[in-house]
Amino acid sequence: MRRKSILLVMLIALFGFSKANAQIKFDDKALGALQKGVTGLTFTDADAAKLSKASVDKLDSEHIIAGPTDPYTIRLNKIFGKYTSGYGYTFNYKVYILKEVNAFATADGSVRVFSGLMDIMDDNELLVVIGHEIGHVVNHDSRDAMKAAYQKEALIDGAASQSKTVASVTDSQLGKIGSAMIDSKHSRKQESEADLFSYNFMKKNGYDVNAVESAFSILAKMSEGTQNDFLTQMMSSHPDSKERAENAKKRAVSDGLYKPYVHQAAVVTPAKTTVKSTTTTKTTTTKSTTKKK
C-alpha cells in the first residue's frame, strides 16, 4: 500500500512538471507572436499601406536619394509626374542612386526607381517597368507580399510585442520587411498580370506599346551574362524575360500596333536656375579741348 502511495505521488509530481513545461511554452511572449500572426491573417489594405509607408520611410533614410534638381529626378518627374493619383492610390516617386537595375512600388503608393535602371532604359521603357510595378500594387500583389513579410517577422520575433496592430513592429523588423519588399517574389501568374497591366497602361495613355517588348528584351540580354547577384535574383523570381517580350509582341500584333521599337536616347532637361543679373552702367566723360587759332 505504501509503495502505491509513493508511486501515486510521483505520478502527480510528474504530471505537474509536464503541465508547467507546457505553460512555459505558451508564455506571454509566445502568445504575443500568436496574436500578431492572427492579425496577419486579417491583414487589410489599410494595414498594408500603413506598414508599407513606415518601411519605405526607413528605406529612404538608408539610401542616397536624388534631389529635386538632380537630372534623374527631373527625368522621372517628366516621365511619370503626371500620374500622381489613380486606381484609388496617391503615388509618390523617388530615385535611389544605386547601380542596380531595379524598381519597386509598395502598397501605400510609394514608387522607388534605381538610377541603374534609368541608365539603361529610355523613357518609354521606364514607363513599362514602373507601370508593371504599379500593376502589382493595383492587383494587391504588394499587399499580399507585405502580409507575408509581416507574418514572417511576427512569428520569428514574438518577443517584440503582444499588440495586434502594425504599430507594434520594431525598427529592426521594419528594416527586414523593407528588404523583403525590394526582393519580393511574385508568382508567374501575378507577374503576367502585371505585364498585362503595364501594356494596357501604355496603350490607354497613347504611348508606344512596342516599348514593352523592348524593355523585357533588355532584361533578357542582361540575364544572359553574369551581371550581378541582384540581377540574377531578380531574373530567378520572374518569368523568362524572352517569353515576356514575345508575349508583349503578340499583343501588339493582335492590336495592329506592332512595329520594331527603336531605343531612344534619354533626354534630360537641366534644372532651371535663377541668376541674379547685375548691370553696371559706366559713364564716360569726354573732355573737349578747343585750340585757339
How would you describe the overall organization of this protein?
There is one protein chain. Residues 6-40, 158-164, 226-230 and 273-293 have low confidence and may be disordered. The N and C termini lie far apart (160 Å). With 293 residues, this protein is mainly α. Strand 1 and strand 2 (89-90) form a beta hairpin. Helix 2 packs antiparallel against helix 7 (141-156) and helix 3 (45-62) crosses helix 7. The strands form 2 sheets. A 3-stranded mixed beta sheet has the order 3-5-4, with helices on both faces. The protein has a two-stranded antiparallel ribbon with strand order 1-2. The chain has helices at residues 2-25, 28-41, 45-62, 71-80, 115-120, 123-138, 141-156, 171-182, 188-204, 210-224, 229-236, 241-254, and strands spanning 85-86, 89-90, 92-96, 103-105, 110-114.
Please tag this protein with its features.
6% strand; 293 residues; single chain; three-stranded mixed sheet; disordered C terminus; 12 helices; 58% helix; two-stranded antiparallel sheet
> How far apart, in Å, are the first and last alpha carbons?
160 Å
Series of secondary-structure elements, N-terminal to C-terminal: HHHHEEEEEHHHHHHHH
Structural class: mainly alpha
Helix content: 55-70%
Number of helices: 12
Q: What is the makeup of the main sheet?
A: 3 strands, mixed
Kindly state the mean pLDDT as a whole number?
76
Q: What strand order characterises the main sheet? A: 3-5-4
Low-confidence stretches: 6-40, 158-164, 226-230, 273-293
Q: Which percent range describes the beta-strand content?
A: 5-15%
Radius of gyration using CA atoms only: 30 Å
Per the principal axes of the C-alpha atoms, what is the gross shape?
Answer: globular
Based on DSSP secondary structure assignment, what is the total number of beta strands? Answer: 5
